Amino acid sequence: MSALGSDYSYFDAKKAVEAADGNSGYYKTLTWQERMIVANCLNSIKYNYPESDPPRMDKTYFRAGRTDDESEN
Questions:
Q1: What CA–CA distance (Å, rounded) separates 57 from 42?
Q2: Is residue 5 within 8 Å of residue 45, measured between CB atoms?
Q3: What is the pLDDT of residues 24-62, one digit of tens each?
Q4: Greater model confidence, 65 or 45
Q5: How far apart are CA 34 and CA 41, in angstroms?
Q6: Can you give the C-alpha Rg of the chain in angstroms?
């Protein structure tokens, strides 16, 4: 396993307050654009894709539109 990969064998149960005290102060100082860069980096590590080339959404499984209930109004 790579040094940056997820280690599912480690688990540390914490209360929500204890978990929130971790690194939240640092991330609150970042702009929303910088937080999106961090999120993209973490997702690329987790799901094993190049950071500069994220996977595209498969639109054959996704359809946006009204349901029958909404169109009656």
A1: 18
A2: yes
A3: 788 889 999 999 999 999 899 988 999 898 888 887 887
A4: 45
A5: 11
A6: 19
Angle at 37 between CA 32 and CA 39, to 5 degrees: 90
Taking only the tens place, the pLDDT of each residue in 11-20 is: 666 666 666 6
Are the C-beta atoms of 35 and 23 separated by less than 8 Å?
Answer: no
CA distance 37 to 18: 25
Q: CA dihedral in degrees (26, 32, 36, 38; nearest 10)?
A: -20
Which CA distances in Å does 40 have to 12, 21, 34, 36, 66?
24, 23, 10, 6, 31
